[in-house]
Amino acid sequence: VGVIAVQDPVPSYFGENDEKALRAIAAQLASTIENAKLLMNPNSLNVIAGKEAVLSIVIVGVKDARSAHVEIDFPTDIVSFEGAEEGTFFKQGGGENSFNSGEGPPGMVKADFAKSGEAKASGSGLLIRYKFKALKAGTARIGVQSAQLADSSGGSQPLAPVSCTVKVTGGDDGKKETP
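Above: the chain sequence. Below: its structure as tokens.
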């Protein structure tokens, strides 16, 4: 199994054509993958306290998905959740799609994706992009705790957890920056 890691240090740096090219490459990789998998990008992140950190989850090897549910956890003492943006994966395949995301209990973010009618999403693509603010120095893990896909027949497939190590450097209060 191969993995393509693409760093996106600047939010919204990659345009629609970039994402299409990455999706095409990932789709070629998906032919060697038997089941759908999640990839977190980056898998290691260094950020200065007070700055934004962006993590993306890419999904590969999907066939006929109608919906998905993802839960991630994060250390509330080191980072704060600032928002989530739906990726391009569930926007493919026609039909209407819905996306809902929000912070659950402290340190957890839930996201739900769904296609309407008979529409389905297949292949590979960007599932979701999370934004966090680094609060204070420390090292921790941000990871998928639970994820599953559902197909049109109602069957579901759990997805293996993935995670990212986040290292925050700088001030203890999120206001200081190191040069």
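The first strand starts at residue 37 and ends at 41.
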